[in-house]
UniProtKB/TrEMBL annotation:
Protein name per its UniProtKB record: Ral GTPase activating protein, beta subunit (Non-catalytic)
Lineage: Eukaryota, Metazoa, Chordata, Craniata, Vertebrata
Record GO terms (molecular function): GTPase activator activity
Species of origin: Nothobranchius pienaari
All residue ranges annotated as the Ral GTPase-activating protein subunit alpha/beta N-terminal domain in the record: 66-108
Pfam families (UniProt xref): RALGAPB_N (PF20412)
Amino acid sequence: YGLTLPLEGDTVKLCVDVYTDWMMALVSPRDSMPQPVVKEPNMYVQTILRHLYNVFVPRPEQHSLNHIRLCQQVLTAVQKLARESVSMARETWEVLLLFLLRINDTLLAP
């Protein structure tokens, strides 16, 4: 998983960029997205949300500006997805809500 790598390089940022872009298949699919993602967006968005949880897992360099920006990028994309998607399946909503609960539990736990 690229999202579990250290934040020093560009790998995690690029993974977040790809995942947040592909999540928008439920909002406005584009030709640049892989066809499997466009054809089955709910299935892929559910997997993407499960993977994006790793961005919020505490790291030694947790308070870096880069980490904060990545978290903001993910949350902004999730907010757009929740507000603008017209074809999100119930299962995807459930995964999205579980994602939000998990990151809150991770970030707010002592």
